[in-house]
Amino acid sequence: MNASQTVLEISLSENTNHILEDLKKLSTCSGEPMAAVYADNLLREMHLLRDKYIDNPITEVVIALHDALYFQNRWIDYTANQYLQAYNLLSSLALQETINNSSVEEAILALENYGFNTLPFGVQLDLNQVDSEAEE
């Protein structure tokens, strides 16, 4: 490992640690006015991670969580337990030596199982309308 790779890994680790700290803080003050400060910090750190490390597998999981929190300010609706579950998931993922596609998929599915809507921007299809247009 060369020096530039080491610096990138340390920087990624620091950014991930900031995300984990904010998730932990959100788990302690969810539903309180102070949660807005931690949610803002968390979303900013998530953007920073995406901008700097788009090719890193942990980024995909973080962005899935970001979408669940950011869409329509849904971070307000999630509970302390959900934030704690997300914290535990991301911290265990960050400790893995290598993160493969299977780990990423499992982590995103775990977020869904915890109640986070990781695909909030989806389009709702009205199948009745599609059927009636096809008949015409």
Tell me what you see in this structure.
There is one protein chain. The protein has 136 residues and is mainly alpha-helical. The protein has helices at residues 3-29, 35-52, 57-70, 80-95, 101-113, 127-135. Helix 1 packs antiparallel against helix 4. The longest helix has 27 residues, at 3-29. The model has no long low-confidence stretch (mean pLDDT 87).
Write the layout of secondary structure elements.
Elements: H1 3-29, H2 35-52, H3 57-70, H4 80-95, H5 101-113, H6 127-135
Helix pairs in contact: 1-2, 1-4, 2-3, 3-4, 3-5, 4-5
Task: Specify Rg, calculated over alpha carbons.
Answer: 17 Å
Quote the average pLDDT.
87
Number of helices: 6
Main beta-sheet strand count, sense and barrel state: none
Note the run of SSEs as H and E.
HHHHHH
